[in-house]
Amino acid sequence: MALFKPKAELAEVDFNHLPRHVAIIMDGNGRWAKRRGLPRTAGHAAGAETFRTIATYCQEIGLEYLTVYAFSTENWKRPMEEVSAIIGLLKKYLLESIEKMEKDKIRLHFFGDLDALPPELRELTVRTDDISTRYEGMQVNVCFNYGGRDEIVRATRAFAADCLAGKRNPEELTEDLFSGYLYSAGVPDPDLVIRPSGELRISNFLLWQSAYAEFYYTDVLWPDFSKEELHKALAAYQSRSRRFGGV
Ligand code: FPP
After folding, report:
1. Cβ of 143 below 6 Å from ligand 1
2. Which pLDDT value is given to residue 230?
3. Model confidence, pTM
4. 41: helix, coil or strand?
């Protein structure tokens, strides 16, 4: 049964066979702002709006998991003003989401080291995480102060600590068991990773989880990414033959 009927002008997508998990590197905010003679922070504000639109639409079409890269472990190198603006946008989004979660039923989770966030923002992430346990809607994972290598190192450390504590032993380690030590424990691997803005890099995003993901790149900058662009990415995904290393 088709759950969703798009407008005719959108790229053809089979809504009965959507990827379960789509991950997006929200790139191009700075260039979007520069082209308009605006400060980079205006690009991030526009990018946050796009995130809201795309997340709502993903829920509408029946996607199960959406993961977005909002702030990497390397992004602290940016000017203080830009870092504060991104943190401020996350706070604004969380405050608005808390009010609407009851209605929207979008579950929010975080991948990343949240210890580095201001206490007030940390408290908001704990609240949204907690509210999310009451719903069964689409799960949105916001990667914040996230790095794929950092995630793997932390998981390795946690596993080693369990071994030292006698709870685990090295011989029993499998890929599945290791996955359970990552921020993404319990979340299926992304089927499709989208990177707008013309860059052809993975940039330390979901390194372990995207081992067999399909990649979709577009020159469109993130603030201009629309439902139409998402449809193109989904249609491209559906045209691929996934073999997971087989024939
Ligand atoms: C990359 O573009 C974008 C970021 C580092 C920040 C993304 C943040 C948001 C979209 C807003 C906050 C998020 C939420 C979830 C509310 P860039 O700055 O590297 O762009 P450029 O490559 O054009 O310079």
Report:
1. no
2. 98
3. 0.94
4. helix
Query: What are the boundaries of each domain within the chain?
Result: 18-147+191-238
Which residue's alpha carbon is at the smallest distance from atom 8 of ligand 1? Answer: 70
Q: Which of 27, 29, 150, 204 is catalytic?
A: 27
Count of Cβ atoms closer than 10 Å to residue 163 Cβ: 15
Please state which CATH number belongs to domain 18-147+191-238: 3.40.1180.10
Amino acid (1-letter code) at residue 112 = G
Residue 119 alpha carbon to ligand 1 centre in Å: 22
H or E, element range at 80 = helix 80-104
CA–centroid distance, residue 167 to ligand 1 (Å): 40
CA–CA distance, 140 with 22 (Å, rounded to integer)? 10
Q: What is the pLDDT of residues 60-104, one digit of tens each?
A: 999 999 999 999 999 999 999 999 999 999 999 999 988 887 778
Note whether 65 and 139 are within 8 A (CB).
yes
- Amino acid in the structure at residue 182: L
Cα-Cα end-to-end distance for the chain:
30
Distance 147 CA to ligand 1 centre (A): 15
CA distances from 196 to 29, 93, 101 (A): 10, 22, 28
Ligand 1 proximity of 26 Cβ (cutoff 6 Å): yes
27 is catalytic: yes
Which residue has the least CA distance to atom 2 on ligand 1?
Answer: 27
- Say if CB 190 and CB 69 are below 8 A apart: no
Asked if residue 196 has its Cβ within 6 Å of ligand 1, the reply is no
- From CA 242, how far away is CA 41, in angstroms rounded? 39
